[in-house]
Every structure is written in C-alpha cells, then in structure tokens.
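Final report, Chapter 2: Outcomes

The project's central promise was a pipeline that accepts a single protein chain and returns its three-dimensional structure in a standardized token representation, suitable for archiving and comparison. That pipeline is now operational. To close this chapter, we reproduce one record exactly as it appears in the project archive, with the input sequence first and the structure output second.
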Amino acid sequence: MLKGWLIYSKKDIGINRAYIDWFITEAALQSIELELIHRENLTIGVLNNKHTVLLNKTHPVLPDFAVVRTIDPMLSLHLETCGVVVCNNARIATICNHKALTHHYVHSLGIPMVDTVYCKKLDLPANPPFPYPFVMKEVGGRGGQQVYFIKNDQEYAAYKKSLPTTDFVLQSSQVWHGQDVRVFVIGKHIIAAVLRKSHTDFRANYKLGGSASLYHLTKKEYRMVQKIVDHFPFDMVGIDFLVGLNGELLFNEIEDVVGSRTLSAVSDINLLRLYVKHINEQLMNRQGL
C-alpha cells in the first residue's frame, strides 16, 4: 500500500478539517494510506553530514509521497532530496509562491498580463509607475491577502512606510474590479474554471465573500491555459486570470496550495478524487508498474 504525508501548519488545520478528512477518505478509497502531519513536528536539515528528516525528534519511515499544504518550498526541496515524491514539487512551490517569479516565467510563454513592476520595499519609487488607482502586492501573499489597492499619494506614502520589508509587485488596475477566473488543473489536464465576483471588494476571492459560477473557457482561452499547463510539471494548481476591460483574460497568478471549496460549491466535480488518482498514477509510473 502506498503511504503519504498530508502536511499542514497547525494554525491551518482547524479551518481545513473537512478538506483534510475528505482528502484522507479519498486516498483510502484508492488504497493509499494518507497521514496528517503537523509541519511544526518536522525537523529538516543536515545532521551527521546527512540530509535528515525527523518527526517528533525521531527518525520516521519516510512516505512514498507528500502533499505539502503549507507555503514551504525548502521543506519540499528537502523531502525530494531524501527521496520523497512531493506534490507540487519544490520548483513549482518556489515559482508559484513568489508573484514576481511567476510573472517572469509565464511571460516567457507569451501569455497576456497587466503591466507589472517588480520592486523591493527599499527601492519603491517616489512616484508610482502607474496612474492611480493601482495594485500593490507582497510577492508571497495568497488567498487575496497582502494585496493593496492604492488610490492616491497619501495611501501610497502610508503603505510604503508601514508595510514590512519585503518584495512587491506593482500592477496596473486597468481591469474589471472584483472579477477573476480560476482554472483548476491536475497534471496536464484542465479540469474546470470558475468565475468569481465581488460587488464589495476589488478582490474576487471566494473566501473574502465573493460569489462564484462555472465558467466555460472559449477555445482561445483554453489554448492559452493549456500552454501554461504544458510548460510546467503541475500536480494540482489553480491558475488565476483577471478580466480585462474588453473581456479578455489576463494572467494574474498560480495558486500552489489550491483548495476546491469554490469548485465544490458550483459543481459536482470531485477534485480530490481526481487528484488522488493522478498521484497514484504518477507513483505507479515511477515504479514501472
């Protein structure tokens, strides 16, 4: 029987309990033993000149695979080095959890996106590169958090002073506010897309009170998304697009630790069942079975 670790930070377990139980159940239905692991109980590093993983300060039998549901690319890299298959892999976790890196690599594919400037806090220009309003994002933010809608000089000055020292992207806001499209992807397959809307916030995230409905990609949009999918070795991600003023989709970001709450609310697609099947197939292929 294949064995896997489902890794969460303790602070995230409560709100995701139903998802965790569902994941473990779907794995069991496909003869996979999936164990919830607290990230805080793992110690990784080089001990006695050897790449080492400790669980509760002891040497565990390492799993066949791990699904890392916390933002920790170093953990993913270390587990891979120790022979564990990680979903998503460390390269995807590194790129997709850094908004500037994501835009850099996706742009190389010729995917349309809003004008975007990469900047460190210490290097933020005195005069912003875009007319007001514009959007300022911490590169490591997710779920609509650490995203700021800057409307005037006073707000820009205040954010420059108060925000933590970090990297940012600054983006034009010449799009429809409060709308975006999330495309759910497993492996090389586009599973479904959801249109998210908010009438109260410039962000359309479902967790922030937005509404959602199934979105049917046009042939042109499907080809654009598939171009991204074909380029990256995804396991499961959500690819997000803003909606341009002419209705066109403009690349926004890729969620590495993507959930399925939105898709479950608007369809009967069992995303986790498909994901577990994908993991199972990938491991069987690696083992030549």
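Archive annotation: The radius of gyration is 20 Å.
This record, like all others produced under the grant, will remain available to the consortium after the project formally closes.
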